[in-house]
Known about the structure:
The protein has 9 helices and 8 strands. By secondary structure, it is of the alpha/beta class.
Amino acid sequence: MLFDRPLQMSRLLLTAIGTRLYTYYGDRVPRQGSVLVVSNHRSFLDAPLLMTALNRPIRFACHHYMGQVPVMREVVTQLGGCFPLESAEHRQQSFFRQATELLKTQQVVGLFPEGTPPMIHSPARYEVGEFHRGFAHLALKAPVSDLAILPVAIAAQSETTNSAVPLRLLSFFDPSEPLFDQEGWHPMVMYQHVNLLIGRPLWISPTQREKYQGKHAKAMVRDLSDRCHGEINALLQQGCYS
């Protein structure tokens, strides 16, 4: 089935490059219904790892430039199942529209709330950066029943870092990204041994959606984002030092 192709390709990729993946707390993964997966992010392998560990196809939101580069566009959309974000002026609106439609059909949507910085300035393997809170807004406003947010930590045990492409080349495809407007190369982190630890799912209730308005909305989003960040950070420390 075409729907399963990203999952099949993920397994083949990890096997081909010899990445050893160890999954913990797999019983926490919802086996049906709409799921919003949020995770820390340091490598292009993170999406294939998450799909393989969760054993479900995941539709990842990916950077705008990935939908602009020939060949890469076909790889990430047709084989990887990703949906590239639009340019900066339309990004938020298109993100909510595309992600909501996928969740309404009970698919799994994957997001990396740290955004682009950890891919350019790769942090230490035990660090997780600040979260953008768009995923929390999405979870609380999407008209989807039985929606779960699933926090996941990707904890590398051994890895190598290589140079992929010049950052200035990516700026040609997405001039709105300030991180591309600098000298140097886009790093490519390759995992040899990685632990993937699955957190406790956070189910969004009808009561939460009813309260998501006015002055309560901002506090609810901050709380939900902080809970996911804290869960991922705790799992990351456990996975890196286990």
